[in-house]
Design brief:
Chains A, B: InterPro entries: Dimeric_a/b-barrel, Dyp_perox_C, Dyp_perox_N, Dyp_peroxidase, EfeB/EfeN, TAT_signal. Chains A, B: It catalyses: heme b + 2 H(+) = protoporphyrin IX + Fe(2+). The structure is a homodimer. The first copy, chain A, is an alpha+beta fold. In chain A, 19% of the residues lie in helices and 18% in strands. In chain A, strands 5, 6, 9, 10, 11 and 12 form a six-stranded antiparallel β-sheet that branches. Chain A has a four-stranded antiparallel β-sheet with strand order 2-3-1-4, covered by helices on one side. The first copy, chain A, has a two-stranded antiparallel sheet with strand order 7-8. In chain A, helix 2 packs antiparallel against helix 3. The two termini of chain A are 26 Å apart. The interface between A and B is large, with 81 and 79 residues. The complex binds protoporphyrin IX containing FE (2 copies). One protoporphyrin IX containing FE binds next to strand 6, helix 7, strand 11 and helix 8 of chain B.
Chain lengths: 427, 427
């Protein structure tokens, strides 16, 4: 983390709200209050017996939320929520406080509350579902965002909607499933151990019970982008290196210019935040696999082995759009990297942070596979939308991909020590 | 591996069959034969840059297939295939040869063929899809099985059907989806890196093109059973330790008695093989999460924290079914471990090797999650069927689980050096 003020909430809050505890207990909550809660002083298990060797922990509190410039972890569980009917503004604030409290604990490798899965009353549902007991945090980050619909008239937030939290336009070729798109709230849980990411989403859903319900969710099994220079570039399901020309955490001037929102962008409360765009992109991998290596490389604009631009050099060589081969541009103008490159988009850049997915197969025996694309930026209109408009119109890759889900979320700044994500919005 | 004769196929076979190469190229295969294939002498990339630290490799050739008593890896991609119409017995043998050749390479951290993703002709589809380039084998095992339907009249195998490859009966409470059950062939790919397991299934599906097609498939993100004493016991999505009383690889006398098929079981060709039963079990985790800790522990028969039997002791203490608490059995007779225990099933034991799954969520916002149960044994009738009959009738856990897919497969012995899985069947 470059410029986070890392803090820690030990004893800063008394724990989950009564409403949050009721959520954990479900509807038959009358019996609660005595046994359940944060009374037990149980030592947290965070031993090294986990399946992942990764012992990293990232701060939950700080200037920015973690999970944005954090070195991309290996696995993802992403979830979008809708606020439940009858939920008031105060309830919503309560939910964000409970989420923040539980998230801060989980990112330290702790259970959602002090009594956790086994330290509460025998006669009440445990606070924590338990499947992460004994596992380390494995680099868990929990990043919370607010969709455009949160700023309607339900919570008195209409005047606070950031001008840069636009409604995404529809793009040529979109085939979006509405039930798998949008959402009032989102949570991105990334970890090197999928059991940890799944545990986080499951427990935060539970805490939301009665206040917000899961709208859609997505598991990602392998990161497709490196976000720091220390990481090897991973590969996507087209078999190509992905993340080579990504904005990297170390590019601090670019990160400041292109990723972090500032008060001057029309919404003070977003200062230090960012905007997340998600696109679930189904890849026709069987069709792709039948193309020649030349066609595949022509589509991407880079070679498959090393990831070097077709204009020559090695993986990290600058792309030379003037280089010719057989009289034509060596990097075709309809190649993905040409159309997505900042030089052809008024300098626009993205911090990409996507994941490969496989959701079983269809009835024709084709794997339902692709890229769950996530990117961060401070100006979606002039970054994601600009680039995607160019891609949707001319990208040679369009023959092999289809966008099936879409989301945009304002990701507020990090919570202050003992505070909660969204505190600047509701203050 | 306890008693494998570890061998290695370097130069033992000439590579993928022409038919296999045609599969890789799809229908427009006329152009092939020259550029594609196994000619190029490209060094395989298997560096340590992968996302998983696991550098383990397991032998593909040997007395038994790997992936059975092998220390359970963290991730799973399981696939069931149906043989395509018009496929002959010889084609089927050719497919098994191609699968074995490619599987042996992949389990060594190599690409499916020597020319792989980038070493072939520019003008042909690459042999390998490439997303595992640069990653180590990460403990990959590929285990191939034959379903009962393979022994119908299509391939002249009816007389070779092992008597122990029974059709599973239907059990009380079953809610099976036929499209997600059964299959002529199965492949279990396990690895510590999901990208490696997905790459294996995808490439083996590709090689099968025109000869067998994917019927159903399942990703599992976290192992639910330990199969060796060296492994920490993982947890399932009910938050309980799973695998405590599992048959372990080190119990060699029990493994010989209960896991490996022998010639005396009515099918010579299965000597050294085993039988795999798969059950996709959806877990109603939201309902479970609303139960008290006491109810959860009563259902399982063990405590949630340490995994000790309710009769007392620690995780690996023997269960005392005579112990009483408040006049009743401390381990209730309808608890899962009581009903599943060998003492109550004529000594029957299983080698369990299941995985947690989450397949998104349903329209009510409930995670579609559960256990993809896999077990190995040499006598399904008297092992899985016996135990599952007892569980289906009385298991207190039934209120929280539902079986939605089912499969049974004869898993032949390991291939001999340079041979193929199934050689004893077709010999
Ligand atoms: C399934 C869909 C996609 C695939 C398979 C894919 C794949 C790739 C690959 C292989 C590269 C080259 C390596 C690298 O620099 O990271 C790349 C670069 C890039 N992609 Fe994508 N991409 C997809 C969708 C998108 C979308 C939706 C966007 C944004 C609208 C996008 C924006 C970019 C950008 C900005 C670059 C860097 C271009 C440069 O500066 O050289 N990609 N992508
Ligand atoms: C979602 C479904 C299931 C869950 C959550 C589950 C969970 C558990 C748990 C927590 C244990 C105790 C720890 C251990 O010894 O591993 C256990 C034991 C066991 N389970 Fe399951 N199980 C499920 C399905 C099945 C099925 C379908 C079978 C076989 C038909 C089975 C057979 C066994 C056996 C044989 C034991 C060991 C009993 C003993 O000897 O103590 N389980 N299971």
């Amino acid at each position: 983390m470059t410029d986070d003020e890392v803090t820690d909430d030990t004893s800063a809050r008394s724990g989950l709200s009564r409403r949050g505890l009721l959520g954990l207990a479900g509807l038959g909550a009358g019996v609660l209050g005595a046994g359940i809660g944060v009374g037990a002083d149980r030592a947290v298990q965070a031993s090294a017996t986990g399946s992942s060797g990764a012992q990293a922990t990232y701060p939950f509190y700080g200037k920015h939320q973690s999970g944005i410039v954090t070195a991309a972890q290996d696995r993802l569980h992403f979830a979008a929520f809708d606020v439940s009917e009858g939920t008031t503004r105060d309830d919503l604030v309560g939910l964000l406080k409970d989420w923040s409290y539980a998230a801060a604990r989980m990112t330290r490798g702790e259970e959602v509350s002090k009594s956790g899965a086994t330290g509460g009353s025998l006669y009440a549902p445990p606070d924590d579902t338990g499947e992460a007991l004994g596992l380390p945090a494995a680099g868990l980050t929990i990043t919370i965002g607010f969709g455009p619909s949160l700023f309607d008239d339900r919570f008195g937030l209409a005047s606070k909607r950031p001008p840069r939290l636009i409604d995404l336009p529809s793009f040529a070729g979109d085939n979006l499933d509405d039930a798998m798109s949008g959402g009032d709230l989102c949570i991105q849980a990334c970890s090197d151990d999928p059991q940890i990411a799944v545990h986080a989403i499951r427990n935060l859903s539970r805490i939301a019970f009665g206040r917000a319900g899961l709208r859609w969710s997505q598991l990602g099994f392998g990161r497709t982008s490196s976000t720091t220079r220390g990481q090897a570039t991973p590969r996507n399901l087209f078999g190509f290196k992905d993340g080579t020309a990504n904005l990297k955490a170390e590019d601090s001037a670019l990160v400041a210019k292109d990723v972090w929102a500032s008060a001057s962008h029309g919404a003070d409360w977003m200062d230090g935040g960012s905007y997340l765009v998600s696109r679930k992109i189904r890849m026709q991998i069987e069709t792709w696999d039948h193309q020649s290596l030349k066609e595949q490389q022509t589509v991407v604009g880079r070679d498959k082995g090393a990831g070097a631009p077709l204009s020559g050099g090695t993986e990290f060589s600058a792309i030379d759009f003037h280089a010719k081969r057989d009289g034509a541009p060596a990097v075709p103008t309809t190649s993905h990297v040409s159309l997505a490159h900042p030089d052809h988009n008024g300098g626009a850049q993205l911090l990409r942070r996507g994941y490969n997915f496989v959701d079983g197969n269809d009835s024709l025996g084709r794997l339902n596979a692709g890229l769950f694309f996530i990117c961060y930026q401070n100006d979606p209109e002039n970054q994601f939308v600009r680039i995607q408009t160019a891609l949707a119109a001319n990208d040679a890759m369009n023959e092999y991909v289809q966008h099936v889900s879409s989301g945009i979320f304002a990701v507020p700044p990090g919570a202050s020590r003992g505070g909660y994500v969204g505190e600047t919005l509701f203050a």
